[in-house]
Structures are given as structure tokens and as C-alpha cells.
Amino acid sequence: MNAEWAGDIAKIVLPTPFAVGDVNIYLVKGESLSLIDAGPQTKEAKETLDRNLKELGYSLQDIDQVILTHHHPDHAGMLDWMPDHMDIIGHPANERWLVRSDEFFEEHDQFYVKLFLQAGLPKEYFPFINKIRSPLKFMGNRGLTHAIKEGDPAPGMQEWTVLDTPGHAQSHISFWRERDGVMIAGDHILAHISPNPLIEPPEKEGQERPKPQLQYNQSLQELLQIDISKAYTGHGEEVSEVHPLIHKRLKKQHERAMHVKELVKNDPQPLFSLCQKLFPAVYRKELGLTLSETQAQIDYLEARQEIYREEREGVLFYYC
């Protein structure tokens, strides 16, 4: 797919090594020339980016800044390969993932050990923690120049307002332009799939774990309050009927949660047992994603007081 301009926005599609497939990044003309997201750090993605920029009449040297929607490697991986003059801009929660210290990895692994123990995972699954880390090999090690948050004008894109849209990632932000209702949505809005509400360690050790499904639902509800004509997405095609899609996503998520409630009715179960029942064909291969999705429904049900928990020898069992 060749990149082309739609007004002041050009969509560039890059290959990724991940199951989600290609990722969309965007070149945006404004007071500065901005790249929204950077793609994964792979030779194929870099070659595709260079070729598309050339077709648009630019090179990487012409770009003033990269603004990240979030920190995941398919969106933020290639920062090391960007010219030194570029500013790197995003939500403050990106930083610990972009510049990964030994302390970060220690807290990361300890968080998942605790989660796995409480979920009732057999010890044989604990080496999977290394697999949860593995996508980070497609990321460089370059931090933010400066941070932006909800309500800020996007630097160099003064018509665009920053929206905090956590859920898929704690660092996730989107951009909205009031005059025409256009939104650059990252992975917050996707046409054909619901973004996975990924479990992340808290920002500081000892804090309560974020509950991404609750954050995601709240973020979607807030988008219903603004006029959105089109959403440019992080994967797949653009979405022109954003509000109907939001209602569809919220309804489907509620139905998934009610199914989980039925599974624990008169049969208390831990997270891992529920994960096996919900994703029998893929939980071994995609343990991180399937545990996140299962925990998401549990968090939702607990927040609504539809289910409750009890601890048995360090394992959390859920019941109603």
C-alpha cells in the first residue's frame, strides 16, 4: 500500500513481526512535520518507512518530531533509528518502557510472579514471564524529549488536542481536532477487533495494579461526549462511525463478562482456570494476552459487585 495525503495527514503502513499484523503510523503537517508513532525496530519496517516517505516527498531528516500514541513495540520500537534532531513526545508513562532499567525489569518480573501465583498458575508456566518480555527486543532505548497529557495542544500540531485514552496501555493518548472532528486514535479505536486491555505493572512498586478494562470503558464513554467524524487507527482501516462502534464494543464486553459470571456461579475458580475455559485453543501460546483478557472481565465484574473473591493458600478464587 502506497502512502498518500488526505489533506494534511498521510497514512503509512508498516510490517510488524507481531500477530496483529501491519501497523499504521501517520505523517502530519502542522507548525512542525510530525510522525505519529514510529513502528517496530526491524529492517523491513525501516525500509518501508523510507520508501513511503520518499513517495510523499520527504525523508526522515525532514521530520521534526515523533509523537507516540503509546509505548508498545509496534508503535514505539524504531526511536533509536530516528535522527538525533527529532523530539520524542508522549505521555509520561512511556518513559519506563522506552528506557528500561535493571530496576524496571526486576519490578516487572516480580509483578508477574505475584500475578501468576494469585492466578493459580502451575510453576511450569512461570518461564512464560520471559516471553512477556520478548516483544521488547523490537524496541530501541531512547526516552522522551518531553511529555504531554490530557488537554494539552499537541506540540507542533496546535489544532490538535491531546486526549488521555488509557486502557490498551497506561501510556495511551489520542489526538482530536475540533474543527473537523478528525481523531488519530492509535489502538484505542480499531475497526474490526477490540483492543486487548493489557495488564501492566503499576507505575511504582507497591501501588495497586491498574485495571485497564475499567480505564478503557471510561475512555470510550468520554469519547461519546465529543464529535468525531473519522478515527485514524493504529491497525486496519479508518472508522467513520465511531460512536456506534463504541456502543458495540461496550455491549460486547459486557456480554463477555456475563459469560464469565456464569462460569463461576456455584463454582469458585481462579483466574487461570477461567482463562483455560475462555481460551482453550490459544491460552498456552498467548498466555499474556489471554490472562489479560480474563482479568479484564473479572475486574469489570468485581467493580459492579457481580462477583467476589476469596483467598485460598495465596490463590484468589472468584465466585457469585
Q: Which descriptors apply to this entry?
A:
320 residues, alpha/beta, Metallo-beta-lactamase, Chain A, 7-stranded mixed β-sheet, 5-stranded mixed β-sheet
Care to describe what's here?
The protein folds into two domains: 5-99 and 136-249, Ribonuclease Z/Hydroxyacylglutathione hydrolase-like (Metallo-beta-lactamase, Chain A); 102-134 and 260-319, no CATH class. Helices cover 33% and strands 20% of the residues. The protein is built from nine helices and 15 strands. The strands form three sheets. Strands 1-2-3-4-5-6-7 form a seven-stranded mixed beta sheet, covered by helices on one side. Helix 1 links the parallel strand 4 (33-36) and strand 5. The termini are far apart.
Topology record:
Blueprint (H helix, E strand, L loop, with lengths): L4 E2 L2 E6 L8 E7 L3 E4 L6 H13 L9 E3 L5 H4 L10 E4 L4 H4 L3 H18 L8 H6 L12 E2 L5 E2 L2 E8 L8 E5 L4 E5 L25 H12 L6 E4 L8 H23 L4 E2 H8 L8 H17 L4 E5 L2 E5 L1
